[in-house]
Design goal:
Elements: H1 2-32, E1 57-61, E2 67-72, H2 73-82, E3 86-91, E4 98-102, H3 104-121, E5 127-132, H4 138-153, E6 157-163, H5 172-185, E7 190-199, E8 202-209, H6 213-226, H7 232-239
Length: 259
């Protein structure tokens, strides 16, 4: 009995090993054939190319986007070889799958460059916040206004919050007038993007810059490039002392005449 139990356990372990091997093979095939997730003609990160395409026939698209039609996979591979291009499966979920003739290496390089440029040109919108009291001191108001102007010059939005306390809540017109005054003081740099509105004990207004952050950076870079830097030779000439002017001869001194 013990021997039978042992052999039964051994057979089960062998089946488990076979199942695990089959699962590993399927997982590896799925990882290399990730092009099944492509939709709408977009090339996925792991698209099938050339001999990796499993379909017996494909709807072939030429390198310039022309429709060639449904051809067998062997004929499509032959056309790709003759044109010195790759056969790329761009829509694997279609029936039959759509494949295109292209230089896949060049396509991946250009896609990476475009993605890098788009990330570089993206500007993150930052909203700064300034908090005021309805009865703020004139000196504090000037300081807060300076912060708002600095934020707007940098291309950021500003959220201005008026905080009411105690009996001040019964006089919201004080906060409204203060916000209107601030908007008028910085109207050359920004505009009121969100009108003042009451939010519990606070009154909020959003001021947006006239110029976007990307435009601000480009303008600043242009100003830095336009600044003229004197050359070392010009700087040396400017620093050199001017030659002394000839002084007139003193009274009684002999002045040499013509020979």
């Amino acid at each position: 009995m013990a021997r039978g139990v042992f052999s039964c356990r051994g057979s089960v372990s062998r089946h488990q090993r076979e199942d695990s091997r089959a699962w590993s093979a399927d997982a590896a095939a799925g990882s290399t054939g990730g092009g099944d997730e492509a939709q709408g003609g977009h090339i996925s990160a792991e698209a099938r190319i050339n001999e990796r395409i499993r379909a017996p026939e494909v709807r072939l698209v030429g390198p310039k986007g022309e429709q060639i039609g449904i051809v067998s996979i062997n004929d499509a591979l032959k056309l790709a070889q003759e044109a010195d291009l790759d056969l790329v499966e761009v829509a694997p979920t279609a029936r039959p799958p759509v494949a295109k003739l292209m230089d896949y290496g060049k396509y991946k390089y250009e896609s990476a460059v475009k993605a890098r440029e788009s990330r570089k040109n993206q500007t993150q919108t930052i909203v700064k916040e300034i908090k005021l009291r309805p009865k703020i001191d004139p000196h504090d108001y000037g300081t807060k206004k300076g912060h708002v102007e600095r934020f707007l010059k940098a291309g950021d939005k500003v959220k201005v919050t008026i905080m009411f306390r105690g009996r001040e809540q019964s006089r919201p017109e004080l906060g409204f007038r203060l916000l209107q005054r601030l908007a008028g003081d910085v109207e050359e740099l920004g505009f009121v993007e969100s009108q003042p509105k009451q939010d519990g004990r606070n009154m909020i207004m959003v001021i947006g810059p006239h110029r976007k952050k990307s435009e601000t950076k480009a303008h600043t870079a242009g100003q830095n490039q336009n600044r003229s830097v004197p050359s070392p030779r010009a700087a040396a000439a400017a620093a050199a002392p001017e030659p002394a002017a000839s002084e007139p001869a003193a009274d009684g001194a002999a002045v040499p005449g013509p020979a």
